[in-house]
Amino acid sequence: MAAASAALAAPRGANGGANTGGCGGTRPEHLALKLAPCAQAVEDPNATPSGSCCAAVRDIWKRQTPDCLCAMILSDTVKHAGIKVEVAITIPKRCNIASRPVGYKCGEYTLPSMQN
């Protein structure tokens, strides 16, 4: 879990540190600080994300594009920490965020529907 927390605390942009990855003027690693409460949900695909995790995801979701969330979870730091993107990408579904763009491609991963 420490690796997940560290990765969520400081991921780099999907193409390097200076990339804003669709996050406007904000670097993905700065936004990722808000996702630290999701560390357990990233490790366990069966875990119910905490209320603070879901609140953080909803807040970022309202303010940023799906490309920004992809930049955070596809970052080199997250990959090196061993976080499974296929688990991380399910957090919006597990948080019951109805406004998420179902079927949105995030690299080779697809945002799941409620039925998936």
Structure commentary:
- This protein is mainly alpha-helical.
- Helices cover 45% and strands 3% of the residues.
- The protein is built from 8 helices and 2 strands.
- A two-stranded antiparallel ribbon has the order 1-2.
- It is globular and about 35 Å long.
- The chain starts with a helix and ends in a 6-residue tail after the last strand.
- Mean pLDDT is 75; it is low at 1-18.
- InterPro entries: Bifun_inhib/LTP/seed_sf (IPR036312), Bifunc_inhib/LTP/seed_store (IPR016140), DIR1-like (IPR039265).
- GO terms for molecular function: fatty acid binding.
- Residues 21-102 form the Bifunctional inhibitor/plant lipid transfer protein/seed storage helical domain.
What is the element layout, followed by pairings?
Elements: H1 2-9, H2 28-32, H3 39-43, H4 51-63, H5 66-73, H6 76-80, H7 85-88, H8 91-94, E1 105-106, E2 109-110
Antiparallel strand pairs: 1-2
Pfam family, one: LTP_2
Domain Bifunctional inhibitor/plant lipid transfer protein/seed storage helical: 21-102
GO molecular function: fatty acid binding
Write a brief structural summary.
By secondary structure, the protein is mainly alpha-helical. Helices cover 45% and strands 3% of the residues.
